Amino acid sequence: MAKKKNQFEKDIESVVGFLKQTDPKNATRANAIKMLGSMQTLAHLIAHKVVDKERSEELKKAIKKKTKT
Questions:
Q1: How far apart are CA 67 and CA 31, in angstroms?
Q2: Rg, Å, the chain Cα set
Q3: Extents of the domains making up the chain
Q4: Is 20:26 a contact under the CB 8 Å cutoff?
Q5: CA distance 20 to 22
Q6: CA separation for the pair 9, 15 (Å, rounded)
Q7: How confident is the model over 22-59, as pLDDT tens digits?
């Protein structure tokens, strides 16, 4: 668990550094945590879209295969 916390702290520091360069007024730890949360949510949604598309393609292939036999 300590490793995860250390990585999270590193991520926060990286985002704060990014914010200092791109949006200095909002370069706070709290905003960095919010940004990481938003990025995590977005990544989760994208992953679901990819999986849904793959499942849809698999279903279409299975239906085509069944209708041919």
A1: 54
A2: 20
A3: 2-68
A4: no
A5: 6
A6: 10
A7: 999 999 999 999 999 999 999 999 999 999 989 999 98
Residue type, 21: Q
Start-end of H helices in the chain: 2-22, 29-68
Here the tokens at position 49 are 């879209």
Q: Which residue, chain included where needed, has tokens 């393609």? A: 57
Whose CA is closest to 36, among 15, 6, 22?
15
CB 12, CB 32: distance < 8 Å: yes
Q: What's the pTM value of the predicted model, to 2 decimals?
A: 0.69
Overall residue count recorded for the chain in this entry:
69
Neighbours of 53 (CB within 10 A): 10
